[in-house]
Specification:
It is built from 10 helices and 9 strands. α9 runs antiparallel to α10. It binds uridine-5'-diphosphate and magnesium ion.
Length: 334
């Protein structure tokens, strides 16, 4: 069986060699045929050079270097577009997902499952805030999403080739892969594992990126925020009827109707607030429609290595540059 491993890397110079060593050690036990597809997501450090070296020394390595940082989900997408294997594993570059778990995933695949997704039963080395916010996010996501998305599941998973082919024809730009894989269906099974701490370096998901990711997940998998507008509108309408009755009562049957100011003030603030919030929500969806509608490519490739073809951006006045591909490739390309 031919297995492809997709590893997105962004500024992972400290861990990449060790990750490669661990992955190869595990995979050699499992299958004679595999490929490792590393995606350099526009790293500013030496990641790209290290990947070139790895590729040079090992024929099983392929590298896709993106033209800039497109984000984790796009990097994974780029990887999926280049796989050849019958089964495809997504794994982080920082060894937080132990490569040893791949064996269990493969077993599930041999049993006939199309997707074996890792479920984190324990997460080491994360701040209490990240643990708590992740927990909250997965639960919120599940309440809102139209398709059930398994709790505490990251992108560490094994997928059958047909699942990958299904993902490849999903053109959306808001790529929340774990949700997309749930949407695809087929038979899926959880593989529990302990998430370790990062081998080295820092998380590339700072708070703001995490929040954006959470928004992407919710907005691309749920119309509930729009439906909330209807419920909030109905609630405001019900309250306003009470307000109207009260106002009429005060006006008709009492002499103190000027002080009704408080009520109208509150009503204006309340309605104004609700309207602004949902204008924002609608705007967010419209912005996404606009972005999807531009139909830009999801990512751009600067260089591909190990695919048996030379690939890089040719410009007329480009300074002469030679790139060698493959282990014993003698031909130089300009
Ligand atoms: N990553 C990426 N592009 C980005 C951010 C992250 O390719 O813009 C990669 C990163 O190199 C790692 C994986 O995505 O292999 C998960 O990122 P990280 O470990 O920083 O996230 P965390 O595990 O802290 O959620
Ligand atoms: Mg990590």
């Amino acid at each position: 069986m031919f297995i492809s491993i997709v590893i997105p890397c962004y500024n992972e110079e400290e861990v990449i060699n060790e990750t490669h060593r661990r992955l190869v050690a595990v995979l050699e036990q499992l299958t004679p045929q595999f490929e490792l597809i590393y995606i350099d997501d526009g790293s500013q450090d030496k990641t790209a050079e290290l990947l070139k070296q790895l590729q040079h020394n090992d024929q099983r390595v392929k590298a896709v270097l993106l033209s800039r940082n497109f984000g984790h989900q796009m990097a994974v997408t780029a990887g999926l577009d280049h796989v050849c294997g019958e089964a495809v594993v997504l794994i982080d570059a920082d060894l937080q997902d132990p490569p040893e778990v791949i064996e269990e995933m493969l077993n599930q695949w041999y049993q006939g499952y199309d997707v074996a997704y890792g479920v984190r039963i324990d997460r080491q080395g994360e701040t209490p805030f990240k643990l708590w916010s992740a927990k909250l996010f997965y639960r919120l996501m599940n309440c809102l999403s139209d398709v059930p998305i398994p709790l505490d599941t990251g992108d560490f998973r094994l997928m059958d080739r047909r699942v990958v082919e299904a993902l490849k024809i999903m053109p959306e730009r808001d790529r929340f892969l774990r949700g997309m894989v749930s949407w695809v269906g087929f038979s899926q099974i959880a593989v529990p594992y302990q998430r370790s701490r990062r081998l080295a370096g820092v998380s590339k998901y700072p708070l703001f990126k995490m929040i954006r990711f959470a928004f992407d997940g919710i907005l691309s998998f749920s119309l509930v925020p729009l439906r909330l507008a209807i419920w909030a509108g109905l609630l405001a309408f019900a309250l306003s009827i009470i307000g109207i009755i009260y106002a009429l009562f005060v006006r008709l049957f009492t002499l103190s109707w000027v002080p009704g100011w408080t009520l109208s003030f509150i009503a204006i603030l309340f309605i104004g607030g609700i309207q602004l919030v949902f204008l924002g929500v609608i705007g967010e969806y419209i912005g996404r429609i606009y972005r999807e509608d531009k139909r830009r490519p999801l990512y751009l490739v600067r260089e591909k290595l190990g695919f048996g073809e030379e690939y890089y951006n040719r410009r007329p006045n480009r300074p002469k540059q030679t790139i060698t591909i493959g282990e014993n490739s003698s031909e130089k390309f300009r």
